[in-house]
Design brief:
RibDG_C; globular; 8-stranded mixed sheet; Riboflavin_Biosynth_HTPR
Length: about 190
């Protein structure tokens, strides 16, 4: 079975929307403007890229990242080359991004479950709020890699689903606090 890992930048109040400056959100770019840069806080991003076997993305994140990451070969070399799975009911094959690695379209959460049940290394989910909510609701997430920023954003897309779910117990397996106040919290989902 593959391990399905959700990785996210989040505010202390759980907002994950537009950390890199995506348009349309009033606090866009909060991860770059809210705290001083401390490279140690982002070391997890390199290890995620080294360990992941494939990315699972929602359509919006796939299109957003695909517009930028292929031109950032130095930072995203392994992500650019690895297979990508996009969960979308609307994305068409002719809309896939040329030159951004092998990409397959999945049409249902059941297809993600089959992918996760297969053999191989970790599958990593970046961004993709709607996808993350669906994966939570179907209990398909195995681990969370969270960088929690010491800010409150109020409104915005939240990392965690607001659906009425059964309790999901998490076990903290690694954590750190950095000079800029960012907290790294890695949780395994207890089954």
């Amino acid at each position: 079975m593959c391990q399905l890992i959700v990785t996210a930048f989040t505010s202390l109040d759980g907002v994950m929307e537009a950390p890199g400056g995506e348009p349309g959100y009033h606090n866009a770019g909060w991860s770059m403007s809210s705290v001083e840069f401390d490279p140690a806080a982002y070391e997890i991003k390199g290890s995620e890229q080294d360990q992941a076997e494939a990315m699972v993305l929602g359509r919006v994140s796939y299109q957003s990242f695909g517009a930028v990451w292929p031109s950032m070969e130095e930072q995203f070399e392994k992500y650019n080359a690895m297979p990508k799975y996009v969960l979308s009911t609307s994305l068409r094959k002719n809309e896939l991004i040329d030159g951004w690695g092998d990409t397959q379209i999945l049409r249902s959460t059941a297809e993600v479950a089959r992918l996760r049940a297969g053999e191989g290394g970790p599958l990593i989910v970046h961004g993709s709020a709607t996808l993350v909510h669906s994966l939570q609701e179907h209990q398909l997430i195995d681990r969370y890699h969270l960088l929690v920023f010491p800010i409150l954003l109020g409104s915005g897309k939240r990392l965690f689903s607001e659906a009425s779910l059964a309790t999901q117990k998490l076990q903290l397996v690694d954590s750190a606090v950095y000079s800029n106040g960012i907290q790294k919290n890695i949780y395994d989902v207890v089954r």
